[in-house]
Amino acid sequence: MIGISSPVVRQDWISCPHCEAPCRDREVPKGSELACARCGATVIVHVGRKTLQPSMALSLAGLLALVLANVKPVMDFEVVGRVQSGFLLTGVAELFRQGYAPIALLVAFAAVIAPLLHLLSVFYVSSACCLGLRLPFVLRVWRFASSIEPWNLIPVYSVATILSVVKLKLLGSVTWQFGARWVIGVAVFSLFAQQTFRERLVAERLRKMGIKA
Amino acid sequence: MKDDTRVSLARALVATAGILYIPSNIMPVMTMTVVGKTEPLTVLGGARELWDSDLPFVAGVVFLASFLVPLMKIGTLGWILLLHGTSLQRRRRNGLHSFIHKIGSWSMIDIFLLAVLAAVGQLGVLAEVRAEPGALVFSTVTICCLLATEIYKPRLIWEG
Q1: Could you tell me which of B131, B5, B19, B150 has the C-alpha nearest to residue B74?
Q2: Using CB atoms within 10 A of its CB, is residue A74 exposed (0-12), middle (13-18) or buried (19+)?
């Protein structure tokens, strides 16, 4: 590990979030960070007075947007006077009907179930840290949030929705509906929640509550 | 899961993705019917159609995400796994692993595109979108790559 000036070294060992190389836990001064000597990833950053309130707010907003994205139609497609409305889960149901259950399940998991579980777990852990609540299974939920995060593909889904409109406009007329805003909303809230839900910050806040990560 | 199992499983998944990559690009992923005219579309065919419709940016995004990203993932993961257990190019392998971990999920764009098009494209002979077996093969390639990246942890590059 690359050293820093007069750090407060603790007794605990932590591992690099990327390559899992062991590192002595320590506090780093403002503006400094501790990089892993093995892979170069940032292991410890200065936490200071930062809180997990942004993660809590963003994950809650994401959850609300996810509900609205599922109950409101995303778009209307019209060809020669006939109109079809599309919801987030209509494509899943249609793929099931056409006999492509594995693809339907994959889309349902990556675009609805994984974002829901990810945002729920981020909200659970960040509210425990912000409100100082010793909620049950908080460490397990934190680990779960890390493992489900790569499967939260709602940002990719929202880009696919925009691309599909471009394609559909070649065939007929497309009208955006209210649900589309919420699909993009979930994507934006998810991305920002991921950015603010820093591993080091969570570990530090949990440590202050007497929960050892 | 034991480290040896992780490596073997990741190798098997990358090999499966590599074998299925060519059929996934040859087989149509969907059939589009527009005003009675039916047309099967492959991954590259969809990008070419957008290009021909004067939408080069969108065609570029589809081409990158659906064709190049899976190819890059298979090639890079194959190379990383080939060098597993050696000390060669560890930093570069580590950097590439992070990179494909970040970009990997974008190859799902074609599957989501199919789901969105199938959702609204149910107007009979006027406009209908049907999934084709190629979509299953393409999804398998995507999932194999995503799972292989998750299973083969960066730690194994340094400790293997």
Answers
A1: B19
A2: buried
Q: Considering only residues 80 to 139 of chain B, which have any Cβ-Cβ distance to chain A shorter than 8 Å?
A: 91, 94, 98, 101, 105-106, 108-123, 126-127, 130-131, 135-136, 139
Which of the four pLDDT bands, split at 50, 70 and 90, describes residue A48? Answer: confident
**Inter-chain residue contact A153 with B112, CB threshold 8 Å:** yes
Q: How many CB atoms lie within 10 A of CB A212?
A: 9
- Domain chopping of chain A, boundaries: 8-45, 53-208
- Reported confidence tier of residue A99, pLDDT bands at 50, 70, 90: very high
Interface check A87 vs B, CB under 8 A: yes
Give the residue on B whose Cα is nearest the Cα of A172.
B127
Q: Count how many domains chain B has.
A: 1
pLDDT for B98 beyond 80:
yes
Q: How confident is the model at residue A14 (pLDDT cuts 50, 70, 90)?
A: confident
Whether the CA torsion A95, A81, A168, A84 is positive or negative: it is negative
Instruction: Tell me whether residues B155 and A94 touch, CB distance under 8 A.
Output: no
Task: Determine contact, residues B108/A156, Cβ cutoff 8 Å.
Answer: yes
Candidate from B50, B116, B122 with C-beta closest to A161 = B116
Structural domain of residue B17, as residue ranges? Answer: 3-159
| Tokens of residue B32, six digits | 């589009």
Query: What's the CATH code of the domain at B131?
Result: 1.20.140
User: What's the whole-number mean pLDDT along residues A29-44?
Assistant: 86
Task: Give the A window 52-71 contacts with B, CB below 8 Å.
Answer: none
- CB of A143 within 8 Å of a chain B CB? The answer is no
Say what the pLDDT of residue A7 is: 52
Mean pLDDT of A38-44: 87
Considering CB atoms only, which of B34, B98, B118 is closest to A91? B118
Can you tell me the ipTM of this complex? 0.91
